[in-house]
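quick one, three chains, predict together pls
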Amino acid sequence: MTRIITLLTDFGTADGYVGEMKGVLAANAPDCALIDIAHDVSAHDVEGGRLALARYWHRFPVGTVHLAVVDPGVGGSRAALAVESEGRFLVGPDNGILSPAMLHPGARCVSLSIPASAAPTFHGRDVFAPAAAKLAQGVSLDALGTMCTTPIVRRTSEATRRPDGGIAGTIITIDRFGNLVTNLVARHGGTIEVAGRSMPMRRTYGDVASGEIVALVGSSGLVEIAVRDGSAAATLGAARGDSVVLRVNP
Amino acid sequence: MTRIITLLTDFGTADGYVGEMKGVLAANAPDCALIDIAHDVSAHDVEGGRLALARYWHRFPVGTVHLAVVDPGVGGSRAALAVESEGRFLVGPDNGILSPAMLHPGARCVSLSIPASAAPTFHGRDVFAPAAAKLAQGVSLDALGTMCTTPIVRRTSEATRRPDGGIAGTIITIDRFGNLVTNLVARHGGTIEVAGRSMPMRRTYGDVASGEIVALVGSSGLVEIAVRDGSAAATLGAARGDSVVLRVNP
Amino acid sequence: MTRIITLLTDFGTADGYVGEMKGVLAANAPDCALIDIAHDVSAHDVEGGRLALARYWHRFPVGTVHLAVVDPGVGGSRAALAVESEGRFLVGPDNGILSPAMLHPGARCVSLSIPASAAPTFHGRDVFAPAAAKLAQGVSLDALGTMCTTPIVRRTSEATRRPDGGIAGTIITIDRFGNLVTNLVARHGGTIEVAGRSMPMRRTYGDVASGEIVALVGSSGLVEIAVRDGSAAATLGAARGDSVVLRVNP
């Protein structure tokens, strides 16, 4: 079976940086399939990259190599990582972007050595892509670096229980449709409070009229607030980081 | 020969939704080639998706599977379709986006069953991608659902003849270059009226000076209005849906 | 080994033009791997396309075919080219976009014949993609057209030495992060003057504090001006074409 290498970056594509990475991958891992995930993650938005990665990494077949490079600390002291988790491999900077796979039970992690010839501003091309190509060619994780011993950066977004019994969460991202994605793990029933409004949990967009606000369990199992045929972000003036509260029906 | 699955959506890529679909495809149709068409169709713009699909679907080899998911009605009562037309397969919602292939003579159509486990907000991942993977693996159309019997949504954009002999059309889309694409099937010669101006049909952009307006037969056989080295949409203040008239030379 | 065809255009993807090109490639070069470089080059920005191409073309394996179509002169008198350089092939219009490969020593170039059936507004689909497919299928360069004899368009961006000993350069492009890329070939040490400011050359972003301006040797070997965790273009109000001066330490 053809080995797959996926690519997620905040590089855009017009400048040719992703093209360079793909050239390195094609030259060092011939006959692998390159699959674009996204290159339009907002510049330096590690959190956005992490949340996207959380959605797709485990859906690809065992053996897939995921490159994820949103790397504002490039050339500084941050480590460069390769991870094996659930049979998939991941490569990227030590800034939390790989957390969804790295915090999975059983995950193993190595710190990549950085060759002196690597451009200090472009580890995507000179460190991460070569490591991804090696993994795709069957080189073992252990052969790529030294086992991580120092703490690595971990990013999570967990809701907390409030004294009054509500679950306090936040809007962790807003998608292209203006849907507000929260860190509230879905419960059946209950009421959502956001931007001074309160609404019951529903099943899907069609459960309200066009233009109405609706709270539901999104496709990743998290509570989302949407506006049918519209944008909840625009309607509610909501932004990433805003508070939401889930009140479970007694 | 490697089976091809193409992808057209209005999901953007940064949120990871397309990544999830690709993971499902890669896991269920190993060794198929995934080819991106576009993910930046305007949100909920079924018409834009249909017009793009009309351009490319028949140019791919026989056996290709085209996924096309612009799906504002997801989770509601709209059907989920798989189509076989001219040896190609298409999968997407019953909102007219598949019309270019579905209205072709000899096309066959089935209504996909929607598993109870499908997220009501993401049929792209849970209904359409699995169906596309099956088709790419050689499963027959008939095995995927029940033959469509109820009317399906049909979208067309046909010009009409006016009492005065002119052909009345509309601007059906505006491309990235600001070219106005109409639904007027090309005739040799004739005059185009748009936005209060009148101009003869030409052959190509170079037939007028830089900055000048030109009407010509576009690469899909439809009349287009362009500005050489500029944007006709900006120059004429034109929008999708505006009227155009073709007057054929006597 | 699977032959690779890469694609660079200014077509965007939503209109389906790139989809048409990919259909032609898939139909005429079955089992080739299509790799997207970029489709969001600014409309008609031949220079931006050339600079991106300069970064990636030689990083792909020998035998790769690079399609590069930013083509404001389509349908006019400009030639259509296919180039062989360092074992890679390139196809695109004669407007300088292929210069990075074409000006390489030993490069060979043919002028493609343009079939009468080609749409005068879309040579990407009807001229360049078919030629790329043939090259990927092993057809020789010489079989595709006639050796170029008339001068072809050459684009370069070379800095010049000033009477006062400084090297006068320009900002040749601004990347997605707001980094100013110049045509100054890197020297160790020295001082950069840009937008009325003067700064020493550094090694990487982390050599200055967050929000500070830094000049360094970029990953393509050219001097770049960046703002750590910010945009140099916004901070300095700089634009493509602006002057920069390098003063080498005595």
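Chain A touches chain C at residues 10-20, 22-24, 26-27, 30-31, 33-34, 36, 43-44, 72-77, 119-122, 125-126 (CB under 8 Å).
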